Amino acid sequence: MLVRMYETLFITRVDAEADVAEKIHQRLLRALEAMGGSEIKLVDWGKRKLAYEIARQKKGNYWYFGYIADPQFVKECERQLRISNDVIRYQTVCLSKLKQVGEYDLEAERKRADSLTPEREEDEEDQYLRRSDERRSRRADQDDEEVETEEVA
Amino acid sequence: MRNQDAPQGQNLDRGPGGDRGQGGERGERGERGDRAGRQPRRFGRRKVCPFCADKTLYIDYKTPSMLKRFISERGKIVPRRISGVCAQHQRNLCLEIKRARIMAFMPYSSATAD
Q1: Which single residue of A9, A125, A150, B38 has CA 20 to 30 Å from A105?
Q2: Model pTM greater than 0.95?
Q3: Nearest-CA neighbor of A124 among A112, A132, A135, A114?
């Protein structure tokens, strides 16, 4: 069977339920299996700032879904993403020409998918979290010092 | 040559025969003749396409930090006469920037330059 390798990136709402991507993933896997494709990986890219507002959202959860499948599956995959209210954007990119299923090295592709996660710029929320972490650790250090001085006394 | 010593105002005073009086044209030609002896303006170092120079550099919409070098502050794609990217790579770059825009990695435009 001739298949292509694809990657679909989709963005879910930040305020959506935690398992929304899991549910979509299950649905996609079922369709993928039925059409004789195989999954490479679903990678969570986490919460990121959007360059512009989409559906009145300033942030979104990014998901990377790689797979090898018949070109017809892309239609089904995008249909599934379109009907979900929590998916605010999706894009599929074709990564290879039509090849036999056996020609793909799934393990290598999985490793590649893992290494893709792009670096993320720190936003205000991250800075706040980092500062409070630093403050906490500093306080912990101070506590240690106090303990030491007590011992000396 | 007769007009070269004439005051500037006379050149600007254009006759009904055309935008440029005959005398004016002759005067300009004379100026150009003076300039011919100078060297043509030299430009700086010839720009080399960064993607041709470094083959490991991969143009990908998933790495917006790399693509950001090729957009202006306003978010426009920088023309290759300025960035020095070769034609082939500019085509790839253009496509990937547009893909990155769809996924909100990059702005379509930013109203204020920040």
Answers
A1: A9
A2: no
A3: A132
